Amino acid sequence: MNPSSGPVLSGSTAALCFCCILLMPCALGGLGLINAGLGRSRNVAHSLLSTICITASAALTYFFVGFAWQGYLGSQSHVWVVQGKLWSWIGSERFLLRGIDFDTSSYSLSVMFGMFAVGLAAVIPLGAAAERWRLSASCASTALFAGITYPLFAHWAWGGGWLAQVGTNYRLGRGFIDSGGAGSIHSVGGLTALGIAWILGPRHGKYQANGMPVAMPAHNAPFVLLGCILAWVGFLGLDCAGSVLFLGTEANRGTLVVINATLAAASAVLSGVCITRLRFGKADASLCANAWVAGLAASAGGCAVIRPAGAVVIGIVAGLLVMFSVEWLELRFKVDDPGGAISVHGLGGLWGVLGAGLFARSSPMANSQYQWLAQVVGIATLLGFVLPAAYGSNWLLNKVISQRVGLQAERQGLDLDELGTGAYPEFMIHNEEY
């Protein structure tokens, strides 16, 4: 194969992929609105500007080095030989996207896909670090994420790397499968969010002297719910394009991908409504919104290789996990995550990776046994490599650039401190903690 072009897709398949990829920025906008809405009013403009700047930093880093290290299935890579078997560990493409023929090949479309996908994954930690993460530090952290953490795992899962090769080398199903990025986007972003939340610590006033958390309500529920709808549109496009580019799914199976993702999200949000009504007497808008996105994240693992009944089960479990994970992280582990990013994307994505292995057997695309074991290897890699790498790189960065704003800046709000103006100048903004 000519690594600068790759196989040329049929006209209809290329058009489908191109259009689906163009929907992916909707997911970025959706996550931006969700993060802004779940925060307090004095940080809204800063949150949305951070979303744009993080996306820009991720795209530029991916242009310089990210895609070169991610690569694409069948393109050049560095390999290790272990017991006579080849294991690809990092791509060896040219930097600055040199030598690529930007045509209708899957190779070229994967570059376009990756530039949006890395931005989407990089925005996820913003939800966990909201209201206390410096704008400059978030851009620097994103450069490390888009230049090291994301492209390495994306190569292993999507670029023909060693995770994808466990199928041929050890007969573990088809190798690690990740149709729409439950592992490569959601889990990588969610685990990075956990590392950053640990480093930054909780918001000022979040915990009382006895260790009990204080409620800091979301300031704009319409933002959050509108963000859910935009995220739905964007993730449908991401799932369809990822399934075609990285799993070789036929274009006509895009219908199954859309149905599975929608059913998983629907099951997750309704399970969230039921649980919050049982526990609190009323449905909780923010938790149910988190359940909706968690269903989308979980379905991304196997949306192209499972049947609709499996998607419903995956969605129900994702909704249940989010309902309790948000509380456990806040109450028992003292992790302050205003946007629920760790539970929604981290835990939801990990469950989606496992769910793909558990339910893929009902699809004709996954005839071999032990697919679940290949998925477990992927989960172990996420927990054993991605989380330590994300924490370690941001810990070192924090020694060079203080990532957390000062106490006074946090009290008056990041809109005033870092941007010089508030998002709602006509209204009174609370300067004290709830």
Give your account of this protein's structure.
With 434 residues, the chain is an all-alpha fold. A two-stranded antiparallel ribbon has the order 1-2. The protein has a single domain, classed as Ammonium transporter fold (Orthogonal Bundle), CATH 1.10.3430. Helix 1 runs parallel beside helix 4 (106-128) and helix 2 runs antiparallel to helix 8 (221-247). The chain has helices at residues 11-22, 24-38, 44-70, 106-128, 135-158, 162-170, 182-200, 221-247, 254-280, 285-299, 308-331, 341-359, 371-400, 407-412, 414-419; strands at 77-82, 85-91. The chain is globular and about 60 Å long.
Q: Can you lay out the helices and strands and say which pair or pack?
A:
Elements: H1 11-22, H2 24-38, H3 44-70, E1 77-82, E2 85-91, H4 106-128, H5 135-158, H6 162-170, H7 182-200, H8 221-247, H9 254-280, H10 285-299, H11 308-331, H12 341-359, H13 371-400, H14 407-412, H15 414-419
Antiparallel strand pairs: 1-2
Helix pairs in contact: 1-4, 1-8, 2-3, 2-4, 2-8, 3-4, 3-5, 4-5, 4-7, 4-8, 5-7, 5-13, 7-12, 7-13, 8-9, 8-10, 9-10, 9-11, 10-11, 10-12, 11-12, 12-13
